[in-house]
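Lab notebook, bench 4. The sequencing result for the construct came back, and we need a structural model before the next group meeting so we can plan mutations. Quick request posted to the team channel:

Model the 3D structure of this chain.
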Amino acid sequence: MRWEVPHSTRSRRPAPVAVPDLHLCRGCERPFVVPAAVLDVVGHDRYLVELQCNNCGLVVVSTHGEDLLEALDRELDRQTADMQATLELWLVTRHHEEIEMFTAALAGDHVLPEDF
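Done. Here's the predicted structure in token form:
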């Protein structure tokens, strides 16, 4: 039996088209997809691109518009900035830990003149 929607409640608007998040892998669903190559220019602002996941190695060749590829580029820039900020935080934390260890060694007379 088929369920029929009354004509008066049907939407006259087309169903929204899902815009893919190109930075998310179709296989492992992780955000490690990067463009590997632009294979061809298909139209005025459409490109055939090869996208590769650096996590699982899945390669997808697909056609995308310039707007979607620019969104991927911005996302990759954001991810790079996040990684740089995390690295800087780790370096500061590591340096602080080294200072604390050296201070503890000085306080415990574990550092001798011969160490220099």
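Residues 1-5 have pLDDT under 50 and may be disordered.
Will bring this to the meeting.
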